[in-house]
Specification:
- Helix 1 (7-27) runs antiparallel to helix 2, helix 7 (199-210) runs antiparallel to helix 8 and helix 15 packs parallel to helix 16 (488-504).
- The protein is rod-shaped, with a radius of gyration of 51 Å.
- A hairpin with a 5-residue loop joins strand 8 (345-349) and strand 9 (355-360).
- The protein has a five-stranded antiparallel sheet with strand order 3-2-1-4-5.
- 30% of the residues are buried.
- The chain has five domains: 7-136, no CATH class; 147-210, no CATH class; 265-319 and 326-360, Beta-Lactamase (2-Layer Sandwich), CATH 3.30.450; 365-436, Signal transduction histidine kinase, dimerisation/phosphotransfer (DHp) domain (Helix Hairpins, Orthogonal Bundle), CATH 1.10.287; 444-625, Heat Shock Protein 90, CATH 3.30.565.
- The chain is an alpha+beta fold.
- It has helices at residues 7-27, 33-52, 82-90, 104-112, 120-126, 184-194, 199-210, 214-263, 282-288, 292-295, 325-332, 335-339, 365-402, 408-439, 451-468, 488-504, 540-543, 565-575, 621-625, and strands at residues 58-63, 66-69, 72-76, 95-98, 132-135, 269-272, 277-280, 345-349, 355-360, 447-449, 472-477, 484-486, 511-517, 526-533, 579-585, 589-597.
- It binds adenosine-5'-diphosphate (ADP).
């Protein structure tokens, strides 16, 4: 920059440096090198400008839509950087006047005005800055843009600013002069006058104060309203931009959620905290057999009316209103539905952690049944296939045993082999029976039977094994017992199962007694078979568990087994209308009692796996037991 430089270039350079300082003071501390550099540059340029003006003041004015330097239009207001324009508009500054000798600190104070809450002028005054002057009330009328040196006189009173404190323009620069501000009373009057007016009328009143010329008034009004409109539009658009973005995001989220829901192989149902259906995917519609439109807003329990369809819902859902949706299902829905309640439900909570709804996956009961059926068929076929060769092996072994030429040790090996085939056979029988019970294919034919005969048959079948283990096994029956209503073969099997357990869990030298009695209460309507041993006994905590499938309690002796025996035994007893009781003391032995109904002329109706069930009845223990 040289002395001969174009003054306009100097002005521009100063404005640039000043704008940089304005921006950087917002980012850095005042003593930051970046800030300092911009301020020093600004100050140096001001010094040059002052030199070029021969010591006259240098003024920067924002008037309507132009920036004027010493009254000379330099550029359009909308070309100004925001920070500079904001400084003027935020504090309603009309003109900033720089007197010769402005320091970098003076400029810094001017920059810091930006973040000041009160009046800009007061800020400078408080800091003793008198080489920079801020004027809010100078209205400069530019006579002609082509002859900047000949600007017309300043306008009269400004509506928004305080009284002008004199013009900052140098006498020799030929720029606009500041007109004295309007009288204070008049100004008060105008503010009072517009207080109740609408925006347009208020503007018109102010404009009328600015100029008496109707044409100029019209122009001013047009200018002001178009500016206002423009700014409003920009602000509204900015606000809308954010909203549009949010809307798009929500829409995208919805589309994503919907496409995930739609493409899920499982049916999905979303319910609110009261169990009302909000959303369903096509798979859920297919399962329920009804479209969402037909079910929307209805309680999820309504799905229960559709036979063979089940709805999963977490049992432990308790909302803030303490409404347990699954309990409601229990009350209103079928017991089957209540029982198929699964933990396949996601709970939806709001920010406060309150439950507002759930997402459930309804299980396609038909598909589940199909899978179960396949499994059961496989087990039935497999056990059947295993049994045929086993029978042949056992027959062959028995034939070999008859061979008198065999040595004593050879015979003992054969005996072990035969015992093992028998064990294998009993395991296969257990699995087969269990699978039949599960699929409801185990049929019972009950008839009038003698309890003595049943007990004797079971004991006879097991005697050889008991003897081989050094155990005493005997049958004791009360004379004159009533006949029982039982499936003979299955009831004998029940006793055989219990006796075989007694044999397994009683050490050598022990005794097993199988008896039949009418029970303590002769009117009980049952005859009780008892299998009593003096073996290991069963701990209290295990006594209920051992009737569950696959459960084996730990006893002293490690014996083989599937853990299905007692589950099958109990199911067989209960399906015949009987009951199975246990009395056992660890170390002293166990007594299993089988109560069978007394025959009173009942007519045989083959009993499958379905005992009567009422809607609210809890699923029977044996179904639970067998996982049905
Ligand atoms: P497993 O086929 O394995 O014997 P069960 O269902 O018949 O299965 O029996 C389950 C468990 O109950 C056994 O593993 C055993 O711990 C216990 N148990 C059954 N009967 C007796 C008994 N008479 N004495 C002691 N424990 C018994």
């Amino acid at each position: 920059m040289t002395e001969t430089q174009d003054p306009k270039m100097l002005w521009f350079s100063f404005l640039k440096a000043f704008t940089r300082a304005l921006t950087q003071i917002n980012l850095y501390k005042p003593d930051h090198p970046q800030v300092r550099q911009a301020l020093d540059e600004g100050q140096a340029l001001l010094a040059q400008i002052a030199g070029s003006l021969a010591g006259a003041d240098f003024s920067v004015t924002l008037d309507n839509d132009k920036l004027l330097i010493n009254g000379t239009p330099l550029l359009a207001a909308d070309k100004l950087p925001n920070s500079l324009r904001n400084l003027f508009t935020k504090f309603r500054i009309q003109t900033i006047t720089f007197k010769p000798g402005v320091t970098g600190d003076d400029l810094l104070a001017l920059c810091q005005v930006q973040s000041h809450k009160g009046e800009a002028k007061d800020y400078l005054k408080e800091r003793g800055i008198d080489r920079v002057k801020i004027d809010e009330a100078i209205y400069t009328k530019v006579g002609s843009q082509t002859s900047p040196g000949l600007a017309g006189p300043g306008l009269g009173a400004g509506a928004g600013g305080g009284p002008g404190k004199g013009a900052g323009q140098g006498a020799g620069d030929g720029t606009a002069q500041a007109a004295p501000a309007a009288e204070t009373p008049a100004e008060e009057k105008i503010s009072e006058k517009i207080i109740d007016l609408g925006l347009e009328s208020a503007l018109a009143a102010i404009v009328a104060r600015v100029t008496p010329d109707p044409a100029e008034q019209r122009r001013l009004m047009e200018l002001l309203t178009s500016k206002f409109k423009q700014e409003m539009e920009t602000t509204v658009n900015k606000a809308l931009e954010g909203l549009r973005g949010e809307k798009k995001k929500v829409e995208n989220d919805m589309v994503r959620t919907q496409s995930v829901m739609t493409s899920m192989a499982d049916g999905v149902v979303v319910v609110d905290k009261d169990g009302n259906i909000l959303m369903m995917n096509p798979q859920a519609e297919a399962i329920s057999g009804k479209p969402l439109a037909a079910l929307s807003g209805k309680k999820i329990v309504d799905l229960s009316q559709i036979e063979d369809q089940v709805v999963s819902l977490a049992k432990e859902i308790t909302s803030d209103t303490k409404t347990d949706v699954s309990q409601e299902i229990g009350k209103t829905g079928s017991s089957d539905l209540a029982e198929t309640v699964k933990k396949a439900t996601a709970i939806i909570q709001n920010e406060d952690g309150k439950i507002v709804g759930t997402v459930s996956i309804p299980t396609d009961a038909a598909k589940l049944k199909q899978a179960e059926q396949l499994q059961q068929d496989f087990i039935a076929n497999m056990t059947h296939e295993l049994r045929s060769p086993l029978t042949s092996i056992k027959a062959a072994l028995e034939m070999l045993k008859l061979d008198t030429d065999a040595s004593a040790s050879g015979k003992s090996v054969l005996n072990t082999a035969i015992r093992n085939t028998e064990r294998l056979n009993s395991i296969i029988t257990d699995i087969l029976d269990f699978s039949k019970l599960q699929s409801g294919k185990l049929v019972f034919h009950q008839d009038e039977e003698s309890p003595e005969d049943i007990a004797k048959e079971a004991v006879d079948a097991m005697r050889a094994w008991a003897t081989s283990k050094g155990l005493a096994l005997e049958a004791k029956t009360e004379p004159g017992l009533p006949r029982v209503y039982a499936d003979r073969r299955r009831t004998v099997q029940v006793l055989i199962n219990l006796i075989s357990n007694a044999i397994k869990f009683t050490p050598q030298g022990g005794a097993i007694e199988v008896s039949a009695d009418a029970g303590k209460d002769a009117m009980s309507g049952s005859v009780f078979f008892s299998v009593k041993d003096n073996g290991s006994g069963i701990k209290k905590e295990d006594q209920a568990k051992i009737f569950e499938k696959f459960v084996q309690a730990v006893s002293g002796e490690k014996v083989g087994g599937t853990g299905l025996g007692l589950a099958i035994t109990k199911a067989m007893v209960v399906l015949q209308g009987g009951k199975l009781l246990l009395d056992s003391e660890p170390g002293r032995g166990s007594t299993f009692r089988v109560g069978m109904p007394v025959y009173t002329g009942q007519v045989d109706q083959p009993v499958f796996e379905k005992p009567p069930q009422t809607a609210v009845e809890e699923k029977s223990w044996w179904k639970k037991l067998l996982g049905m």
